[in-house]
């Protein structure tokens, strides 16, 4: 299910694209069938040939241009709402580091670190109802941070930091093996996965405290 408020917005945009594509496809197929039936050859002579129709040509140029421009604007506004600047502060910041072929999650301000190993996937734990900022970077090649429940992915580039923010919804639960790297990053790309768990704020605080105690010398 959608796990963030922004995922609901993105899903609505996808539905607009899907419905628009179905309507356009039906229109094109309908026109083709109409033309095949209406203008099929009925005798040895060709029908009257029409060289040009300026108003019609202007219309079928402008209408698709306006439709594409509207879809672009809706998509841009929806995705741009998740971008953040360096000065934007959130309740929780997760620094995501991708590397061949695992993930590392560093939580701020608690200092909790979760790192995947060759024998175990890391788990990304998030609290319901929180605004979470993700700072993404890679230490080797291009990776891509993709959680289906976010309906959104963002690439990780070596030596650069890409940021976005989401508002976690009220859907709590375990989503094992759902986070992936969506950019082919060489031999063990398929093993670069992680679990996602959404918990209540109280459970999240207890989880952070437990992780801090485990990491203490």
N→C terminal distance: 39 Å
The radius of gyration computed from the alpha-carbon positions, rounded to a whole number of angstroms, is 25 Å
Residue share in helices? 25-40%
Beta strand %: 25-35%
What is the count of helical runs? Answer: 3
Strand order of the largest sheet: 3-2-1-5-8
Strand runs, count: 10
Report on the biggest sheet. Answer: 5 strands, mixed
Low-pLDDT parts are none
The ordered string of helix (H) and strand (E) elements is HHEEEEEEEEEEH
Can you put this structure into words, describing what you see?
The chain has 217 residues and is of the alpha+beta class. The chain has 3 helices and 10 strands, in the order H-H-E-E-E-E-E-E-E-E-E-E-H. The strands form 2 sheets. The chain has a 5-stranded mixed sheet with strand order 3-2-1-5-8, with no helix packed on it. Strands 4-10-9-6-7 form a 5-stranded mixed sheet.
Offer a few descriptive terms.
5-stranded mixed beta sheet; 3 helices; alpha+beta; about 220 residues
Tell me briefly what this model is.
With 217 residues, the protein is of the alpha+beta class. Helix content is 35%, strand content 29%.
SSE inventory with pairings:
Elements: H1 5-38, H2 54-80, E1 92-99, E2 102-108, E3 113-115, E4 123-127, E5 131-138, E6 143-147, E7 152-156, E8 162-167, E9 173-181, E10 193-199, H3 201-215
Parallel strand pairs: 1-5, 4-10
Antiparallel strand pairs: 1-2, 2-3, 5-8, 6-7, 6-9, 9-10
């Amino acid at each position: 299910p959608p796990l963030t408020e922004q995922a609901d917005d993105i899903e609505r945009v996808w539905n607009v694209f899907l419905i628009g594509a179905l309507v356009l496809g039906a229109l094109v197929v309908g026109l083709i069938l109409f033309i095949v039936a209406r203008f099929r050859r009925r005798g040895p002579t060709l029908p009257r040939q029409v060289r040009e129709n300026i108003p019609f040509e202007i219309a079928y140029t402008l209408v698709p241009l306006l439709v594409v421009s509207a879809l672009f604007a809706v998509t841009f506004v929806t995705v741009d709402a998740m971008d953040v600047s360096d000065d934007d502060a959130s309740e929780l910041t997760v620094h995501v580091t991708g590397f061949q072929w695992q993930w590392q999650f560093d939580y701020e301000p608690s200092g909790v670190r979760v790192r995947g190993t060759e024998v175990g996937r890391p788990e990304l734990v998030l609290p319901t109802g929180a605004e979470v900022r993700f700072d993404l970077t890679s230490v080797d090649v291009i990776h891509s941070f993709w959680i289906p429940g976010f309906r959104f992915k963002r690439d990780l580039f070596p030596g650069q930091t890409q940021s976005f923010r989401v508002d976690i919804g009220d859907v709590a639960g375990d989503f094992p093996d759902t986070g992936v790297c969506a950019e082919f990053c060489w031999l063990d790309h398929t093993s670069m996965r992680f679990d996602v768990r959404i918990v209540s704020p109280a459970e999240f605080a207890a989880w952070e405290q437990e992780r801090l105690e485990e990491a203490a010398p």
